């Protein structure tokens, strides 16, 4: 597959295909192939935040009072989250290089920016609470920890395959792993921080995690749409083999996620591993539904980890912080309704 041309006036403004299509490179949000993606773009922008809005002063005092296993898990999980957000920044950009739809390029630019913010936020929280030596160690986990490497092996493989061989099939595979990343891989880590918050520990960090969580939910939603649209634009790839492949990746990812959660959350007060495994399967079901496939864990259609609903399920569409932090500064109200939102 060729990279999309930057400007090509011979082509129409409205794209003829998400990948391998034709488009001039001029973006008119009034005239895009998937009109409701304008709303998605607006929703993504509405989530704007950055790390140093978050007050870490209580977390700085509290970190020393966490148990050794809590401290250890805290650092390992930050290490894990960093291994997801850094490659996602680049993958979002790479997808936009091949997209022949300017609205997709713009949306991916916003997603890439948000992944960059997530990544910096891990440095921000760590630099608040531990020595430089420990910070560096946390970021080394992603390269050195055996279980973490095993857990990330598939995503690394398929993301790199796309770099080396950018075909529509490899894009669909990368999008599948992106739905797993945005909708599954982060969530045992998120749960760890929400669990601390419900015991009133490290609330600053959890607030930051809730902002990241809200972004990832939106990303997951858009990437699922992109996956479905790309599949239906390329019916030759919409076959049993591909669908079977997707189910296999979901099953394997769930197994690896369970193994990881057993390793990193074993001694954490308040976390019931059985419940956590159910939560992982529930997340997998949710993402499969979003990409238009069937649930594979019928016993986990509902969220079995009840306490987490107060943190993770109430994020959508709300601008109120559910932790006690100051009100958000960046959320602007449209003073004049010019009808643009209704396009
Ligand atoms: Zn992210
Ligand atoms: Zn994301």
Automatic annotation (TrEMBL):
Offer one example of a GO biological process linked to this entry: deoxyribonucleotide biosynthetic process
Which superkingdom does the taxonomy of this entry point to?
Bacteria
Q: GO MF terms on file?
A: metal ion binding; ribonucleoside-diphosphate reductase activity, thioredoxin disulfide as acceptor
Reaction catalysis annotation: a 2'-deoxyribonucleoside 5'-diphosphate + [thioredoxin]-disulfide + H2O = a ribonucleoside 5'-diphosphate + [thioredoxin]-dithiol
- List, alphabetically, the InterPro entries matched: Ferritin-like_SF (IPR009078), RNR-like (IPR012348), RNR_small (IPR033909), RNR_small_fam (IPR000358)
One Pfam entry for this protein is Ribonuc_red_sm
Detail which positions bind Fe cation 1: 85, 115, 118
Q: Which UniProt keywords apply?
A: Deoxyribonucleotide synthesis, Iron, Metal-binding, Oxidoreductase
Q: Which residues form the active site?
A: 122
Query: Entry's SUPFAM superfamilies?
Result: Ferritin-like (SSF47240)
Sequence positions that bind Fe cation 2: 115, 182, 216, 219
The record describes how the cofactor is bound as: Binds 2 iron ions per subunit.
List cofactor names only. Fe cation
Bilayer-spanning residue ranges = none
The record's EC number reads: 1.17.4.1
Q: Its family? A: Belongs to the ribonucleoside diphosphate reductase small chain family.
How does the annotation summarize its subunit structure?
Answer: Tetramer of two alpha and two beta subunits.
Q: Which NCBIfam families match?
A: PRK09614.1-3
Q: Which PANTHER family match?
A: RIBONUCLEOSIDE-DIPHOSPHATE REDUCTASE SMALL CHAIN (PTHR23409), RIBONUCLEOSIDE-DIPHOSPHATE REDUCTASE SUBUNIT M2 (PTHR23409:SF18)
Function, please?
Provides the precursors necessary for DNA synthesis. Catalyzes the biosynthesis of deoxyribonucleotides from the corresponding ribonucleotides.
Q: What is this protein called?
A: Ribonucleoside-diphosphate reductase subunit beta
Organism, scientific name: Psychrobacillus psychrodurans
